[in-house]
């Protein structure tokens, strides 16, 4: 089985712009979670989608949003980028979510200038 | 709110020495999982512990889940340079993950 894929792998944006990141889960997996990873903060949970519905949400501002499509692919959008949004964004998929083992993608490294 | 604390944040060991990282939750967990992230890589699942007091081994790695299901530890015996990376615990309660801050392990050859 192919693993979790994320596109793009690297991205440079400027403050105020918006960005959309994409995640394709492992075939058959219906849950996709998104995390922000920064050197000082570790892995911070953004949200989880299951069957096109947001099931859980972390403590991030409304500038961070996501969605999931019927084929379980997920996108994450960040509007009005700030310098502090520079991070590695990881998505992880699992069959049913709910605490099951998560399989992480390689991440998208976002740099905001 | 739910918190999972992990210590130490960093650990440098001489190759061949042992290493332990500890994870503590503020609330009882339904299970705990451990992940390893190599430098420049992404977290990779290592193991899941579900039962109170559970101990599991993977070669030189020993994982423990506390009796109260609030703490866990990962112990590596005789570290090797291939053990380098950041080890994360992830506590699961309800249907949500709470990742620890990770322990970055450096192994000095």
Describe this entry's structure for a reader.
The complex is a heterodimer of chains A (113) and B (109). Chain A has 113 residues and is mostly beta strands. Chain A has strands at residues 5-7, 10-13, 19-24, 31-38, 42-50, 53-57, 64-68, 74-78, 87-94, 103-104, 108-112. In chain A, a hairpin with a 5-residue loop joins strand 7 (64-68) and strand 8 (74-78). In chain B, the strands form two sheets. In chain B, strands 2, 4, 5, 9, 10 and 11 form a six-stranded mixed sheet that branches. Chain B starts with a strand and ends with a strand. Chain B is globular, with a radius of gyration of 13 Å. Chain B has 109 residues and is mainly β. The model of chain B has no long low-confidence stretch (mean pLDDT 95). Chain B is built from no helices and eleven strands. Chain B has strands at residues 4-7, 10-14, 19-25, 31-37, 44-49, 55-58, 61-65, 71-76, 85-93, 96-99, 103-108. Helices cover 0% and strands 58% of the residues of chain B.
Provide a concise account of the structure shown.
The complex is a heterodimer of chains A (113) and B (109). Chain A is mainly β and 113 residues long.
Secondary structure layout:
The complex is a heterodimer of chains A (113) and B (109).
Chain A: E1 5-7, E2 10-13, E3 19-24, E4 31-38, E5 42-50, E6 53-57, E7 64-68, E8 74-78, E9 87-94, E10 103-104, E11 108-112
Parallel strand pairs in A: 2-11
Antiparallel strand pairs in A: 1-3, 3-8, 4-5, 4-9, 5-6, 7-8, 9-10, 9-11
Chain B: E1 4-7, E2 10-14, E3 19-25, E4 31-37, E5 44-49, E6 55-58, E7 61-65, E8 71-76, E9 85-93, E10 96-99, E11 103-108
Parallel strand pairs in B: 2-11
Antiparallel strand pairs in B: 1-3, 3-8, 4-5, 4-9, 6-7, 7-8, 9-10, 9-11
